[in-house]
Amino acid sequence: MELIFERSRPGRGSDLLPPPDVPASPLPEAHRRAAAPRLPEVAESEVSRHYQAMARHAFGVCDGFYPLGSCTMKYNPKLGEDLAALPGFTGIHPLQPEHTARGCRSVLDRAGAYLCQITGMDEMTFQPAAGAHGEFTGLLLIKAYHVHRGDTGRTVILVPDSAHGTNPASAAMAGFTVRSIPSTAEGLVDLEALRAACGADTAGLMLTNPNTVGLFERDILAMTEIVHAAGGLVYYDGANLNAIMGVARPGDMGFDVCHLNLHKTFATPHGGGGPGSGAVGCKALLAPYLPGSALGGGGGAQSIGQVRAFHANFLVVVRALAYLLTLGNTGVRQAAEGAVLNANYLKHRLEAAGYSSAYPGLCMHEFVLTLEQLKKQTGVSALDLAKAMLDQGMHPPTMYFPLIVHEALMFEPTETETPETLDRAAQALEALLKTARENPQALHAAPVTTVIGRPDETAAARRPVVRYGFEEG
Amino acid sequence: MNIPTELRYAKSHEWLKEEDGVCTVGLTDFAQDSLGDIVFVNLPQAGDAVTAGEAFGDVESVKAVSDVISPVTGVVKAVNDALLDDPAQVNADPYGAWFIQVESVTDTEALLDAGAYEAHCAEEG
């Protein structure tokens, strides 16, 4: 399809802005650019068609089944959009006096109180803009805690080998050294290895529960106790909260700090449709270090400082609060139960169809298949199967993650899928497995129905083209 | 799969060649094949200390980022900077595309010969 720059013609444009009715006030010479920015010049009708065409070529939760594991691509209720578009929320200015923005303050307070209730934390900040930003903020809280106690030798963050890649990255960004904890053959954290890794240099442990293979860490109380006994704190990665919200609370498991992905668990737009919100909750012992904002509270003398301008992605919090108020106490629990039920149903159907689970038995909100045997027998890889799913009108699951499972496909159907959708997905995947055995070449060639088949990912990573190549002159 | 008999191998899929007290380290054919197309390589600098059994760099493929583990303890004598610009060499010629050379070696991991490494790869699938 044509790029917006290719639709551009000199002098063309839109009359969205009226001519200026005040005298022009030029910028100081030093701040003026030498040449005009080469922005595309396109009529409004052409801009509309351009974005409409892009939307047709994309795939969202409203287009079909989207079981992207670890991402919780649940349906985002339109009610949230209506409420976030209310002029009282969209028309405010971040610097207007607090007493004129009490409705907004109330949204932050109420959403914070509900999320504290769900997580078992004492305080909540909405400053971080996304999950990894939340991890970084939470780790700065842990660092501030140790440093303010004069306990400066705690420089190591422990991370299981099944963790989200952002965990070690965030720990490194926050200035910690990362030590990896192996998993057992069952897919759970190795308790003895954790015990052996803990010591006087332990700042904390980062953990998601259920973990990235969709299993509940049964020994969670023992784990948090081991880390606390060594003088460390425990961080809960909220990426998988959808499996347990309303049922079990990270705060009760011994976690001291957590982040939540409002854009996953609490049904706010996600992926290209963001922005996100990586709200961070903590126990009272970390509250003095929370980042502050004029409306959000916090920000005392020991605060780590603001991590985002003003009140961060406020309208995301409006949507999350709308979602919580719509579901209510029992609805939140039902959503988690539905997510776990749907994942187990699909897992069972796919196992019956001949797929191999990486870990047998019941799962939580997601599960991991391994196509290692299929690849050995037929040459069809997890990538081939994922690409072939596109031709069946489904978004592929997460591939090649977690790294501890070979040829991994990670499915997370979420609670918002109907049994019929799950049945159709299972039937389509059963048919693909048959094709893999009878005509593997067909799957190597998939997808054939999409605008772009197989982009050259290697060339894209080795020689990325990140700006439009204007014809010079 | 190519497993030269004159080299020694770590279970974490690095190869090691020792010549006149200098150890050259790279990734095996099995490793590059499992990783797929490698798009970035991170290397230490000459003069850095490396420790047997610990990561000295990492490689990124279109699938994942993986640590590269040093089979020896010592000091980095030289790094193969050419890999930074052209990581595809690791896929094309895994035993030519060395990562680092280590001198002042004080410790070496228990390494496998070609036959034992081949058996180890067969086990990992």
Automatic annotation (TrEMBL), chain A:
EC number: 1.4.4.2
Pfam families, per database record: Aminotran_5, GcvP2_C
Domain Aminotransferase class V: 150-271
Top-rank taxon, per record: Bacteria
Source taxonomy: Bacteria, Bacillati, Bacillota, Clostridia, Eubacteriales
One GO CC annotation: cytosol
Known function: The glycine cleavage system catalyzes the degradation of glycine. The P protein binds the alpha-amino group of glycine through its pyridoxal phosphate cofactor; CO(2) is released and the remaining methylamine moiety is then transferred to the lipoamide cofactor of the H protein.
Pro residues: bias regions: 17-26
Record's keyword annotation contains Isomerase: no
Domain Glycine dehydrogenase C-terminal positions: 335-436
Protein name: glycine dehydrogenase (aminomethyl-transferring)
Catalytic activity: N(6)-[(R)-lipoyl]-L-lysyl-[glycine-cleavage complex H protein] + glycine + H(+) = N(6)-[(R)-S(8)-aminomethyldihydrolipoyl]-L-lysyl-[glycine-cleavage complex H protein] + CO2
Gene3D superfamilies: 6.20.440.10, Aspartate Aminotransferase, domain 1, Type I PLP-dependent aspartate aminotransferase-like (Major domain)
Region annotated Disordered, chain positions: 1-37
Record GO biological process: glycine decarboxylation via glycine cleavage system
Keyword field: Oxidoreductase, Pyridoxal phosphate
Keyword Oxidoreductase: yes
GO MF terms, alphabetically ordered: glycine binding; glycine dehydrogenase (decarboxylating) activity; pyridoxal phosphate binding
Automatic annotation (TrEMBL), chain B:
Gene Ontology terms: cellular component: cytosol; glycine cleavage complex
GO terms of biological process kind: glycine decarboxylation via glycine cleavage system; protein lipoylation
InterPro entries reported for this sequence: 2-oxoA_DH_lipoyl-BS (IPR003016), Biotin_lipoyl (IPR000089), GCV_H (IPR002930), GCV_H/Fam206 (IPR033753), GCV_H_sub (IPR017453), Single_hybrid_motif (IPR011053)
Modified residues (N6-lipoyllysine): 63
Cofactor annotation remark: Binds 1 lipoyl cofactor covalently.
Superkingdom classification of source: Bacteria
Subunit structure: The glycine cleavage system is composed of four proteins: P, T, L and H.
Every Lipoyl-binding domain range: 22-103
Role this protein plays: The glycine cleavage system catalyzes the degradation of glycine. The H protein shuttles the methylamine group of glycine from the P protein to the T protein.
Name listed for the protein in its UniProt record: Glycine cleavage system H protein
Entry similarity comment: Belongs to the GcvH family.
Keyword Repeat (UniProt): no
Keywords assigned: Lipoyl
Cofactor(s) demanded: (R)-lipoate
